[in-house]
Amino acid sequence: MNPALLDDFSLEMTGKDVPRLEEARDGIPPGTRINITFLAGEDTATRLTAARAVKRLGFVPVPHISARRLPSRPALEEFLTGLAADGTAENVFVVGGDPARPEGPYEDALAVLRTGLLRHHGVRHVGIAGYPEGHPGITDRALWTALTDKAAALDADRFDGDVITQFGFDADPVLAWLEDLRARGVRLPVRVGVPGPAGVRRLLGYATRFGVGTSASVARKYGFSLTNLMGTTGPDRFLHALAERYDPGRHGVVKVHFYTFGGLRATAEWIDGFRRQHAPAPASSNR
């Protein structure tokens, strides 16, 4: 496998993971993009503190903005103003978010994009969400409409951007989705979501929550068994399958985004070991 697939990978953390990022920092390449989630139990101060820490430690903070969790326009402005003041507003990831009903005026990510507030506060790069295996609460048609509309909005406002996908255990639907994405005219780089090494039971819990396929055949393909939930597994087989069939001409620019369910340090160590294992052999010399 060509380890170049893991060049410029990105990671995800919560606002409360700053101590764990400090522990893992030596194993993460400087300049790595690190997404900071927008969880219900974390306030604005926690999110801003995390973004500052990511920057201080030499990485690129990518704060999340969860549209349906925003109670008001002033709340969005407060968050963006705080990011701008700290020099951490250049990159954001805008997502609809988990609540079934909006807690304020923003029904989806597109509504946030259309406020004009991102550019005003210094945002230059916007990530948006993609769902290769669909979403349990949204039809495929609605997902595609939302994604193409958001991509068009980024283009119209001259934002750089990318698409970060939900994680999965099977490379086949991801590759098919990438082809469909390009056929629909979306040229944004895609960061394919991949679980870092984690306990099988924990992975299945997240998969159930997000509607990710976990049939017995998919589990075997990924490298675990549904009858043995006590072990830990990593995305070795998934990445091999993705790399073997990845074609830039058909799939466009593709990178990898790690969901660190098993922890930042464990994920960073796993990535380093995987890259070393698959590094090209040094060229031989006949001199």
From TrEMBL:
Keyword Oxidoreductase in annotation: yes
Cofactor(s) for this UniProt protein: FAD
Transmembrane segments: none
Pathway(s) where this gene product acts: One-carbon metabolism; tetrahydrofolate interconversion
Keywords recorded for this protein, A-Z: FAD, Flavoprotein, Oxidoreductase
Reactions catalysed according to its record: (6S)-5-methyl-5,6,7,8-tetrahydrofolate + NAD(+) = (6R)-5,10-methylene-5,6,7,8-tetrahydrofolate + NADH + H(+)
InterPro entries listed in its UniProt record: FAD-linked_oxidoreductase-like, Mehydrof_redctse-like
One family name in Pfam for this protein: MTHFR
Family: Belongs to the methylenetetrahydrofolate reductase family.
UniProt-recorded name of the protein: Methylenetetrahydrofolate reductase
Organism: Streptomyces lavenduligriseus
Top-level taxonomy: Bacteria, Bacillati, Actinomycetota, Actinomycetes, Kitasatosporales
